[in-house]
Amino acid sequence: MHDFTRRTLLQGGTALAAAGALTGPALLDFAKAWADTSPWKAEPGAKLTVMRWKRFVPAEDDAFNAMVAAFKTATGTEMNVFSESFEDVQPKASVAANTGSGLDLAWGLHTLPQLFPTKVLLMNDVADYLGKKYGGWTDAAAKTVKKGDDWLGIPVATIGGYMTYRKSATDKAGFSTFPTDFPGFLAMCTAMKANNTPAGFALGHATGDANGWLHWVLWGHGAYTVDKDDKVIINSPETVKALEYCKALSETFIPGVASWNDSSNNKAFLSGELYCTANGISIYVAAKDDPTKKDLAEDTYHALMPVGPVGKPTELQLAVPILAFNFTKYPNASKAFIAFMLEKENFDKWLSGARGYLTHTLNAYDSSPVWTADPKNAVFAQASKRALPASGIGTPGEKAATAIADFLVVDMFANYCTGTKDAKGAISDCERQLKRIYR
């Protein structure tokens, strides 16, 4: 755990200044003024333990740490923050929910608050305050955390996953512009493999990457786990078509994708083994920040996810909502911190620190400077608006969150693409597990 202090804040000043963030006294002055007028006054002696996902862009972490330190100084709230990998966030949040101890806030993935709807502190007042002030929430972000009219958490941001590719390789494959539909994308990947510049996408239990691109393929064919009434409908001709398309695509991939986690494609791309994948902007940022990878950075571009036969975007982007547990001793401090995170003086600059890795979920941030700071950032600005909630066309809630957390769609595709099961068997396994959840 890290106990953030004023010294921590000032040490982060250089990185933050480069990102255009408030730093040092300016940030502290804002934080103190905000605390004086905030609708939520932190309880005397408040101490918050916060778990968050482990950062992929160091400057984002610097900006976040500075924000935490400023909040601590302004409100007197002790802030203990620690990071966990994507894969470990949900299990550790579940332990806290089941034991009623260990955490005050958990900043996690997809529909995390929906896993513990009776254990969270309702955030209706925070959502209303921020939504009215900053142009309203994007549709998928709001659905991610809402149960009926109640906000189980706050959708802080979206980690956009888009096509990351080496332009020299796609040009050589005969595609001067990135394909915008599924047939074109498959044709490009086939040509890239023939040139020994392969694509690669995770087929293992990669919480962000595998869930993201495989739901995109499923939904792009008009196939869904459940319908609008939450009836299981995975066993459909559309699912078979999605499996067949994915298998053909997987045959163009670099070896080893069946065991990939969320960091595997980053490593393969940066090492020069991989030429096209779906990822956040972190690969490009890492290349830009490494003097030995200047040529790689210049050759790296981004594109929107191609559109499938349904004719419209069908993207599962990585929502990162935050929740406060209702057993916290400091509900006011919890709400104050969450609201503080998304105030313009913090959030606009935090987006710049994240360098495109985080995408806003409040419409007022459409014009944030980060989206024009580098032309290669612009694609990621659309992540929150093009996404569907993790439930697809079904009801976002505990059941949909469980299906995502248990990798049911990922395993269905992986079983078929690796030859472990035929289409009927892969779909049947997924259907049986979905029916156990949606009973």
Summarize the structure.
The protein has helices at residues 6-11, 13-18, 24-37, 58-75, 86-99, 124-133, 139-145, 167-172, 182-194, 209-220, 237-250, 264-270, 282-289, 294-299, 331-341, 344-354, 370-373, 383-386, 398-405, 408-417, 423-437, and strands at 2-3, 47-53, 78-84, 105-107, 146-147, 150-151, 154-159, 162-166, 276-279, 300-303, 318-324.
How is the secondary structure organized here?
Layout: E1 2-3, H1 6-11, H2 13-18, H3 24-37, E2 47-53, H4 58-75, E3 78-84, H5 86-99, E4 105-107, H6 124-133, H7 139-145, E5 146-147, E6 150-151, E7 154-159, E8 162-166, H8 167-172, H9 182-194, H10 209-220, H11 237-250, H12 264-270, E9 276-279, H13 282-289, H14 294-299, E10 300-303, E11 318-324, H15 331-341, H16 344-354, H17 370-373, H18 383-386, H19 398-405, H20 408-417, H21 423-437
Parallel strand pairs: 2-3, 2-4
Antiparallel strand pairs: 1-3, 4-11, 5-6, 7-11, 8-9, 8-10
Helix pairs in contact: 3-4, 4-15, 4-16, 6-15, 10-11, 11-20, 12-13, 20-21
Describe this structure in words.
The chain has 439 residues and is of the alpha+beta class. It has two domains: 223 residues, Periplasmic binding protein-like II (D-Maltodextrin-Binding Protein, domain 2, 3-Layer(aba) Sandwich); 187 residues, Periplasmic binding protein-like II (D-Maltodextrin-Binding Protein, domain 2, 3-Layer(aba) Sandwich). Helix content is 46%, strand content 11%. The chain has 21 helices and eleven strands. β5 and β6 form a beta hairpin. The longest helix has 18 residues. It starts with a strand and ends with a helix.
